[in-house]
Each structure stands twice: as C-alpha cells, then as structure tokens.
C-alpha cells in the first residue's frame, strides 16, 4: 500500500504547520523548503489555495488521493454539511481513532498497529486502517499486545489528552466511539469549505 514515506519536516514546512508532529523544525526554519524557500511568496490563485488545503488534509490523515476522493464522494451523499461530514468520516477511521485514544503516538504508528493485528474491534481483530467505525463500536488492544513498549509509552505520553466523543478505560486498554464529533470538537486546522469548493468545480 503506497504511503508518503519522505521527510516529515519538508511537509510541515510546506504548510507552515506541524501537521506530522515536528514543531521544532518549524521553530528553527519558519519558511518553505527548497533553495527558494526564503524568497518572496507569490500571490496564490484561488485554486492553489483550495488544492493546498486538500493536500494538507490528506497528509494529516495519511490518506491517498483516490481514497480521499472516494471519502468525499461518500460525504456528499450523506445528510449534513458536506465539509463537516467529510471530517467526521476521516475521524471515524480506525487508525485515527487508535491515535486519538492515545494507543499510538502518531497516525503512522496507529496504522502500523492496526496492520500488524494489535487492535480488536467489537471482539474481532481488524487489520484495515481505513475501517470506518460507528458510534457504539468498542476498540481494544489485543491481550498479548498490551505490554508492547510502543503502546505503553504512547498511553503514558498522551494520557492528559481527552476527546468528548471517545471513552477510554486505561486499566482494560479499551476504548469506545461514543458518537461522531461535531466540527468544533475536531482539533485539526483544516478549512473544509475550501475542499468542498475545490471538488465542486
């Protein structure tokens, strides 16, 4: 499965945001990557701004172009505001929920845990990162995986961060998707309306 495996710092500097979790690099070099990164910025077209927002969302959630377009298409068919529904669908991905629960320190790490069958959904092992969870679904770490250093370290690091649409039992290593988050509860700095406008052209 193809994924972006290049320098994370380069992506964060392109959008001037720590979207892949490397804030220190931005503090050192607060300008775009490349030999002309410090040069004067050209005024971007409306299309370029919309495209950049879509690319940013793709990198944040680790989704490829075709998969992202498919998710957007499904979002347009659901009730509600398309942009918000799109973000809700991205948030309901299994790899993202594993990350939000604190089981993994990054979405990349969450994807690996899922692929390597360390995660159980409603009693069954699921190894598909894009698996869409529904409200009421129970996510847990497999019994034999509870002592994995990557998981215990991540849970210790992220224990303070909580989301009101998720429930977590640290003793049982079990979480639950209570409901889909409303827009103001999704912390990502994404202007979803720009993405909707881009796909509407």
How would you sum up this structure, described in words?
42% of the residues lie in helices and 8% in strands. The protein has helices spanning 8-15, 23-28, 46-61, 65-76, 82-91, 94-100, 107-115, 149-157, 192-199; strands at residues 119-121, 124-125, 138-141, 166-169, 174-177. The longest helix has 16 residues, at 46-61. The protein has a domain at 93-179: Roll (Structural Genomics Hypothetical 15.5 Kd Protein In mrcA-pckA Intergenic Region, Chain A), CATH 3.10.290. It has a five-stranded antiparallel β-sheet, covered by helices on one side. Helix 3 (46-61) crosses helix 9 (192-199), helix 4 (65-76) crosses helix 5 and helix 6 packs across helix 7 (107-115).
Second CATH tier, the architecture of the domain at 93-179: Roll
Question: What is the name of the CATH class of the domain at 93-179?
Answer: Alpha Beta
Give the rounded overall mean pLDDT.
88
In CATH, what is the homologous superfamily of the domain at 93-179? RNA-binding S4 domain
Structural class from helices and strands?
alpha+beta
CA gyration radius, whole angstroms: 18 Å
Q: What does the main sheet amount to? A: 5 strands, antiparallel
Shape summary: globular
Provide the succession of SSEs: HHHHHHHEEEHEEH
The counted number of beta strands is 5
Strand order of the largest sheet: 2-1-3-5-4
Strand content: 5-15%
Q: Quote the CATH topology of the domain at 93-179.
A: Structural Genomics Hypothetical 15.5 Kd Protein In mrcA-pckA Intergenic Region, Chain A
Number of helices: 9
Query: Could you list the spans in which at least 5 consecutive residues all have pLDDT below 50?
Result: none
Helix content: 40-55%
- Distance separating the two termini: 29 Å
């Amino acid at each position: 499965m193809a994924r972006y495996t290049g320098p994370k710092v380069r992506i964060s500097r392109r959008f001037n945001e720590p979207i892949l979790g490397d804030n220190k690099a931005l503090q050192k070099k607060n300008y775009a990557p490349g030999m002309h990164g410090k040069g004067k910025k050209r005024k971007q077209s409306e299309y370029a701004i919309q495209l950049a927002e879509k690319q940013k969302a793709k990198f944040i959630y680790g989704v490829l172009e075709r998969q992202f377009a498919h998710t957007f298409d499904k979002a347009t068919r659901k009730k509600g505001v398309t942009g918000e529904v799109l973000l809700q669908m991205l948030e309901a991905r299994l790899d993202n929920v594993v990350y939000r629960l604190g089981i993994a320190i990054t979405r990349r790490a969450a994807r690996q845990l899922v692929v390597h069958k360390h995660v159980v959904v409603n009693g069954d092992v699921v190894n598909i990162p894009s698996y869409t969870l529904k409200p009421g679904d129970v996510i847990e770490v497999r019994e034999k995986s509870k002592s994995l250093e990557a998981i215990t370290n991540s849970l210790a690091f992220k224990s303070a961060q909580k989301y009101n649409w998720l429930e977590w039992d640290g003793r049982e290593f079990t979480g639950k998707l209570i409901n889909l988050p409303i827009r103001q509860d999704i912390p990502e700095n994404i202007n979803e309306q720009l993405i909707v406008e881009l796909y509407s052209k």
